[in-house]
Amino acid sequence: MIYLTTDAMKIRETYLEQVRTYVGMSKTADANEVIRDVNEHIDRELQNSSQPVSKENLESILERLGSPRQWVNEDDLTWWRKMTMRLRKGPEDWRLAYLAFATLIIGTVLMGPIGLFASFCLSRATLSVSEKNELQTKRWLVFPALLIVYFLTAPILLFWPVLPLVGICVASFDAFFEKSSTLLCVSVFTSIITIGMAIWWSFLWLLTRKYVRMVKVLFKPFAENWKLNWLGYLSTVLFLIGSCAIVFIILFK
Amino acid sequence: MAEQFLDNWTIQLRKGLLEFCILNSLSGEKVYGYDIVRKLRNIEHLVISEGTIYPILSRLKRDGLVDTSLEESSEGPARKYYQLTTRGIELLLQMNGIWMRVLDGVQQIQSQKGVSQK
């Protein structure tokens, strides 16, 4: 039986608590087993010490054992411990990724669009500090906010002219409807909307041809492989449809 | 910069070798946990914190490479002894084979370049 001074006992208990805490974070090591081994180790080291064992004697043994904080590799931590440690200590890209996801869930519930915007900003910050090949493991944390914002903004950017074009059609509906057949009305409205959209998409296509990098930056990382010409093809198709509608109007007016 | 490089390299080397040395220390016999620490602490640069050995032993046990048994001791409470399982013995044979090949290769490079062992 090893007898320790009161101070030495407190130090020993504190040390064993640290062992329990840090080894308890490990996926693979059994904290209780390690504590038993460490206790045994301390007792063996103190076997030939004068009793009661002083704080200084005990501390020299604990110093050789080392800090339990360093006993467990990050790879060996449970996933949620790894997350907590990364939130507290970094690396920065992981910390941002966890914050982005947490802000998306909690921020959106509490603050609506502001929370979503904050999460989007954190996700973009994560992209900035992450290497391309490291993104694979973080995408589940970072992509949700990005996808939500992109899915909201991209259609608005592509299709916003539809609203004023439909407004023109609605405004001129009475004027056309009384004087023309339904088919002619439909042709006129089709030509207005398709030609209008074709003009807008052609403009976008020309703009993005000149500023490709802008598109890739705005819609990072999904626009990395974005092909320039699909907007051009679509606007061409719309021009053709609009032209057919105009030809129909001319022929059958 | 060079010092940091050396520190990082030593840490990585230690990580890989510690488990290997623990398994080798168990080769052919039952060993008391504390005695494993005493054997390995004498190898320079291998063990910085003696306590790191215990979580490794726990992990090796969970992986089925070592087994433990309690034996009565005349010097005090029962002691926990570690020994290799069959799987641990097979794995250690493979690890020793790999280690010898790596060691041969490194020594060849060193002798070609006339690198001093000191």
Straight-line N-to-C gap of chain A: 111 Å
- Strand arrangement in the largest pleated sheet of chain B: 1-3-2
- Sheet/helix structural class of chain A: mainly alpha
Gyration radius over CA of chain B = 17 Å
Count of beta strands of chain B: 3
The amount of helix of chain B comes to 55-70%
* Largest β-sheet summary of chain A: none
State Rg of chain A: 34 Å
N-to-C series of helices and strands of chain A = HHHHHHHHHHHH
Q: Which oligomeric state applies?
A: heterodimer
* Low-pLDDT windows of residues of chain A: none
Order of helical and strand elements of chain B: HEHHEEH
Biggest sheet architecture of chain B: 3 strands, antiparallel
> Helical proportion of chain A?
over 70%
Kindly estimate the percentage of residues of chain B that lie in beta strands according to DSSP: 15-25%
Query: Quick one: overall form of chain B?
Result: globular
How many H/I helical runs of chain A? Answer: 12
Q: What's the overall average pLDDT of chain A, rounded?
A: 83
How is this structure best described in words?
- The complex is a heterodimer of chains A (253) and B (118).
- By secondary structure, chain A is an all-alpha fold.
- Chain A has helices at 6-24, 31-46, 55-65, 79-89, 92-111, 113-129, 135-159, 162-171, 173-179, 182-210, 212-218, 229-252.
- In chain A, helix 1 (6-24) runs parallel beside helix 3 (55-65), helix 4 (79-89) crosses helix 5 (92-111) and helix 5 crosses helix 7 (135-159).
- Chain B has 118 residues and is of the alpha+beta class.
- Chain B has helices at 2-25, 33-41, 53-62, 86-112, and strands at residues 31-32, 66-73, 76-84.
- In chain B, a hairpin with a 2-residue loop joins strand 2 (66-73) and strand 3 (76-84).
- The two termini of chain B are 22 Å apart.
